[in-house]
């Protein structure tokens, strides 16, 4: 009965994911960073810019140096496979979610003999608020988390099984993970030093595996830097324009250490609450497992560096959340209760819950398929402008005050916004404009369209 319950709970973890993600599958509208990344990927697919010279709009980041291009290149493959459809912007991060879950489960079976309980870390991670938000909004942390988990899994495989070809693959994937969002992917380097400290039986293998991974990564990076001029040019520009100014605090400042600490605690609220309840209800004590300590330390390595930065957002901590949840899951799984429920009615209840969740998820995805989930009035207004007037560009008063409009226009229309001279002018305030005549208003958006006087 225990295995049947856990089999149903494994299905339940996927049903919950479907309930959280599928309703948004065919909708438009995301956080504007996600729209930006989708636009760059679409441009790559359409031949605008290139892999090492990615382009956002002709007027905003004509060459995009804010992040390395590996995720954009992979996303563009989805456009090539499925076409320029809004739902591709959901399928891509949802695929990354599936890859992350696969890696979580592979890591779990290396540490916990009860592989049928791999649903525990999966469910805890899936229900983490920032994980839900990141995958719904096509943030770079979605592919980054998948790549980081893959690196850690490959390092475990190479070390524990002493098959160092896995370590070679880890070095290659580590190179790709840095190519998604830069140095924020560095914390998996602490995987094997922590393993060597806590698991003395694997110390020699861990150090050898670490050396192999670093040699492979260094060789790859050196080759591209020395023999691929486009890579060297992009990397130098990325370093000078984005990375160093950010590290020196010369760019956007957001959040703070106290605020971010509270945000991390909010993300950990569910596993902490479950742990407290289990301790209260279970007579036997819960000891701190060595596996839990390992993953908590690795999670700290992915969390603490951001607390010392001037620029902090909740989604920056998302890749580390997988390891926090793994630590809690190992701790919670050390006793049989409540994972070995012996009542048949629970099997029926969980089975019905799974079926109901899938039906609701599919039904909501169909219901919302004709309605944008976010910024629907703005999206509709900008699409109406395109279908009615067919502009190549539209002038706005100040681009820095209209990043959301820029992102929506670039992703869902074929024109771009500019501060330069254009036949059309879009404003958020009405009134007479010299040289322009009023054309149309979009009341639900407070947008006013003007056209040059003839």
Produce a short descriptive summary.
This protein has helices at 2-21, 32-45, 70-82, 88-111, 119-126, 129-136, 141-160, 165-181, 191-198, 203-227, 229-247, 257-267, 269-281, 290-303, 318-332, 344-367, 376-389, 403-412, and strands at 49-50, 53-54, 393-395, 416-418, 424-427, 436-442, 447-452. With 454 residues, the protein is mainly alpha-helical.
Structural features, described:
This protein is mainly α and 454 residues long. 61% of the residues lie in helices and 6% in strands. The chain folds into two domains: 31-342, no CATH class; 376-452, no CATH class. It has helices at residues 2-21, 32-45, 70-82, 88-111, 119-126, 129-136, 141-160, 165-181, 191-198, 203-227, 229-247, 257-267, 269-281, 290-303, 318-332, 344-367, 376-389, 403-412, and strands spanning 49-50, 53-54, 393-395, 416-418, 424-427, 436-442, 447-452. The radius of gyration is 24 Å and the shape is globular. The chain starts with a helix and ends with a strand. The mean pLDDT is 88.
């Amino acid at each position: 009965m225990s295995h049947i319950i856990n089999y149903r709970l494994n299905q339940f973890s996927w049903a919950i994911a479907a309930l959280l993600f599928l309703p948004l599958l065919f909708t438009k509208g995301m956080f504007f960073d996600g729209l930006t990344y989708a636009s760059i990927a679409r441009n790559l697919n359409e031949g605008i810019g290139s892999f090492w010279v990615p382009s956002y709009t002709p007027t905003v980041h004509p060459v995009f140096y804010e992040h390395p291009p590996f995720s954009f290149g992979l996303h563009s493959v989805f456009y090539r496979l499925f076409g320029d459809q809004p739902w591709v912007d959901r399928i891509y991060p949802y695929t990354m979610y599936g890859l992350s879950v696969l890696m979580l489960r592979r890591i779990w079976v290396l540490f916990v003999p009860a592989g049928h309980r791999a649903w525990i870390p999966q469910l805890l991670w899936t229900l983490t608020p920032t994980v839900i938000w990141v995958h719904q909004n096509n943030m770079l942390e979605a592919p980054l988390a998948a790549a980081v988990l893959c690196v850690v899994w490959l390092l475990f495989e190479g070390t524990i099984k002493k098959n160092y070809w896995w370590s070679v693959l880890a070095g290659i994937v580590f190179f790709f993970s840095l190519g998604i969002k830069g140095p924020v992917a560095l914390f998996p380097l602490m995987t094997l030093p922590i393993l060597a400290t806590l698991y003395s039986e694997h110390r020699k293998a861990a150090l050898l595996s670490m050396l192999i991974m670093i040699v492979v990564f260094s060789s790859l990076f050196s080759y591209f830097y020395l023999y691929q001029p486009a890579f060297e040019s992009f990397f130098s520009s990325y370093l000078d324009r984005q990375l160093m100014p950010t590290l020196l605090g010369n760019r956007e400042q957001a959040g703070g250490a106290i605020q971010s600490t509270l945000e991390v605690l909010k993300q950990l609220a569910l596993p902490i609450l479950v742990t407290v309840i289990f301790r209260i209800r279970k007579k036997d004590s819960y000891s701190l497992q060595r596996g839990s300590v390992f993953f908590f330390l690795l999670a700290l390595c992915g969390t603490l560096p951001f607390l010392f930065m001037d620029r902090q957002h909740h989604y920056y901590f998302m890749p580390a959340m997988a390891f926090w949840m793994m630590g809690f899951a190992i701790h919670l799984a050390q006793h049989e209760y409540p994972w070995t429920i012996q009542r048949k009615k629970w099997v029926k209840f969980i089975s019905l819950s799974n079926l109901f969740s899938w039906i609701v998820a599919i039904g909501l995805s169909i219901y919302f398929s004709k309605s944008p989930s976010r910024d629907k009035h703005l999206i509709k207004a900008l699409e109406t402008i395109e279908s009615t007037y067919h502009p190549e560009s539209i002038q706005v008063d100040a681009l820095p005050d209209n990043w959301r409009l820029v992102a929506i226009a670039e992703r869902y229309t074929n024109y771009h916004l500019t501060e330069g001279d254009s036949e059309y002018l879009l404003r958020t305030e009405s009134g007479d404009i010299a040289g322009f005549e009023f054309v149309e208003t979009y009341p639900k958006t407070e947008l006013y369209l003007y056209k040059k006087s003839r």
